[in-house]
Amino acid sequence: MTALTLKPAAAAGQRADVIVVGVAKGAKGPVLAPGAAVVDEAFGGKLAAVLETLGASGGEGETTKLPAPDGLKAPVVLAVGLGGLPEKDAAFDEDALRRAAGAAARALAGTKKAVFALPAESAEAVAALAEGAALGGYSFDAYKDDGEAAKGGKNGKGPLGEAAIAVDKPRDKDVKAALERAAAVAEEVNRSRDLINTPPNDLTPEAFAAVASAAAKEHGIKVQVLDEKALVKGGYGGILGVGAGSQNPPRLVKLAYTHPKAQKSLAFVGKGITYDSGGISLKPAGHNETMKCDMSGAAAVFAAIVAAARLGLEVNITGWLALAENMPSGSAVRPGDVLRMYSGKTVEVLNTDAEGRLVLADALWKASEAKPDAIVDVATLTGAMMMALGSRTFGVMGNDDAFRTSVHEIAEEAGEASWPMPLPKHLQKGMESPTADIANMGERMGGGLVAGLFLQEFVGEGIAWAHLDIAGPAYNEGSPYGYTPKGGTGSAVRTLVRLAERTAAGDLG
Ligand code: BES
Ligand code: MN
Ligand code: ZN
Question: What is the CATH number of the domain that holds 146?
């Protein structure tokens, strides 16, 4: 994990391996961003011209390395593109800073120490730079090569060691607090990424529950793990049904973070399918290679609760991790089987690959029993949502338009792309079952909304609920960009943390 520190801006020429400056895309070529002055001086005021000669434009995510001239104590300068210039007198937007810091940190994998001489003119800007650097510096090397794993593995370079953010007032209380928050949140996002990237032969439901228990104890979070026996006793037919085909039995993990001054209570529910083969409705080749990512919702819930505990937020949060492995076998649920869910409702399983909604249904009903002020579930639920919104935006649905809008806006504040989606009542009809109360599948068109409507059936009366379908953004199959690595992204963690903060501040309902 990249360490984050603050350094006085005047000392931007201090000892480091690399000094990072920002460059924006101006109308007539690259323009240096605030923070770059000390470096530019060492170049005799010609840094922008040099960069242009080297082919730099200031475009978003572009990185240009060049040797430093005498006068700078770092041997290398890295110019990172910020994209378009902000409007006159306006500051660079936080998202642009976060992405640029992330791109720089990625370009500096394996470097010991870099000074970030980027625009850091407010506590918010410092937070964005710090978050971006810590998220962009992430690398998952645990499986690279035994002997070298600690150093980043034979094939990995390891992360950037330290990102020193250069600021005018490093001792300012707000600036220091912003850095600490950013470090805690980024560490937890990275923790969720580690879980997502861990191969499914190692991260079974039991193993996930053990990781969650250990971390919960470390951070003063109460934890309770329901194993397969307890699940049978409690009547959790959805979770048991999905887990029935696997040698690795399911778990339901409850995490309870409480604060003595809390006025509000939230419940976070996460889909934790440690591997989704599709079950008897087996996925075809080409669709299951990345399905270790199907526990990303549970990873996000877990990481967000640990972050809330570390930040000491004045809100009570209960987390529910619905963990199971969806496998085909002689003991697996079959298409045509009827499950009796924890709520008492019966579900005809028409497609065993629509398993997420089955485990979530039990967890949502359980979460509803405590009558929290709001419930948010997070799930890699449908390929249809990915079709609708692409691979970088999650869908937000819910039973309360105002709450759904708040969650969408909070995600935006946190720097996560999301979009509100409807739950049209007429789609309910497709889930009618001749045998049971409801089927686990409906119309193919609008499949993401159908899944949302199914979940709604298991949310307690009168509780505000939002459903985040992160099937698109949870796992990056493409090239890394900004602060987003390949593989697990940690989608929704920052949104959940921000929601907890806003709830603690009394900003919601
Ligand atoms: N885990 C998948 C959804 C998914 C697909 C997540 C691609 C990430 C990337 C989910 O369990 C699933 O298989 N959904 C089915 C539902 C269908 C059978 C009704 C789907 O979307 O095809
Ligand atoms: Mn599935
Ligand atoms: Zn799934």
Answer: 3.40.220.10
311 located within any domain? yes
Q: Which residues surround ligand 2, an ion (CB under 5 A)?
A: 276, 353, 355
Nearest alpha carbon, ligand 1 atom 17: 354
**Model pTM score:** 0.97
From 144, 176, 283, 392, active-site residue: 283
Q: Is the CB of 469 under 6 A from ligand 1?
A: no
Q: Residue 4 burial (CB < 10 Å; 0-12/13-18/19+)?
A: buried
Identify the active-site residue in 357, 366, 404, 498: 357
Whether residues 158 and 201 fall in one domain: no
If we measure between CA atoms, which residue out of 97, 14, 25 comes closest to residue 483? 97
Q: What is the CA radius of gyration of the chain?
A: 24
Q: Is 353 annotated as a binding residue?
A: yes
pLDDT in tens, 152-176: 555 567 889 999 999 999 999 999 9
State the alpha helices, DSSP H only, in 55-136.
94-107, 123-136
Q: Which of 69-73, 174-178, 416-420 has the lowest mean pLDDT?
A: 69-73
Of 111, 136, 170, the residue that ends a domain is 170
Tokens, residue 338: 């009827």
